[in-house]
Structure formats: structure tokens, C-alpha cells
Amino acid sequence: MSPLPEDDPQLTDFLKQYRPIAPVADPKLEQRVMALVEKVPHSLATQHANRRRFRQRVVWLLPTSIAAGLVAIGGSQLLFSPQPTEAELAELETFIESTWQGTVAEQPTTETEELYPLVGEGAVN
Fold first, then answer.
1. In 1-125, which ranges are continuous DSSP H helix?
2. Nearest in space to 105 (alpha carbons), one of 91, 122, 124
3. Model's pTM, two decimal places?
4. Cα separation, 94 vs 86, whole angstroms
5. DSSP string covering 24-41, please?
6. What is the pLDDT of residues 67-92, one digit of tens each?
């Protein structure tokens, strides 16, 4: 790209000939604008402040309500969880005793039993 020339008389003449004409300034424009500003109630500023306060409340209300809901759900599950019956407790106790007895009853005596504890007499088919 070539640099632009410092002085281009044709361009300067063209711009002078076709430049836009600026509108005439209204001498009472500032007075009209200030009158309109004075008519606007100051409630706009208070409305803006109220919106900001509302947003701040929502920002705190949303996480607080989510946390309260989670606590309510968790608490209701703890309070209203079904209690096991006597039969279920007896079955659980039997299961725990049988599995505990199987883990401490006998120690493997050979290397094969040590590597493969289910191979032998007590193997499950």
C-alpha cells in the first residue's frame, strides 16, 4: 500500500465543495432541556435504588432458600425413615455373624489356599 500524499489539492477542493452544512444552534435548547430535567421526578433515582436493593435481596434469598430446602429434605428423611422390623434385624444379625465367622475361622495353611482361599472343601460352585 502506498503512503498518502501530504497535500492533495483535488481532494481538498472536493471536501470543501461538498462538506455538510452544520445546523443552526437553537439558543433556547439548553433552557428547554433543563426545564424537562426539572420536571422529571426524583422518583427515578429512588426506583433505581429500589431495584438495586431488590436484586441484592434476591441474591441472598436464592442460596438461602436452596440451603433451607436441602436441610428440610435431609431432616425429613432422618425423621421419617422406616425403622427395620424385628425380623429384618434378626436377618441382618445372622448375616453379620456368618460373614464374620467366615473371615476369622480358619487361616490358610498352604500357599495354594493362601492365594486361592475358595479352592478346596469350602469352594462355592
1. 9-17, 29-39, 43-79, 86-104, 111-115
2. 122
3. 0.28
4. 12
5. PPPTTHHHHHHHHHHHS-
6. 888 888 877 776 776 778 899 899 98
